[in-house]
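One thing: could you explain this record?
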Amino acid sequence: MLKLPPNVKVGGHTYRFVWLAKSAEAVDEWMHCDYDAQRIRVHPACKTLDGSKIAEYVIHEVQHAINEAYGNLDGATEEHFTTQSAKGWLQVYRENPKLFAYIDALLCTATA
């Protein structure tokens, strides 16, 4: 199986995926997007999840980064959110082929 790429480009920023070393330093979430540090922290036990759940969490955290980069934070109308999200995902898709290869591989190994 492919490894999670080391980073993802979102807007003008590069977020690093950081696998936390041990459960003691891990957050109480599977993954967490930190806007200020431009990193997405990954809980070490995340590796034990089904591929589709890992893919879901990766997409979820990238959406947080898109929200920050494209102005989708609190107060956005649905139309604004949808338009900016589409622009963000188009940019992420174009600039991060390894991320999408990873997601595709996860989904191919996911249980039904």
In short: The two ends are 18 Å apart (CA to CA).
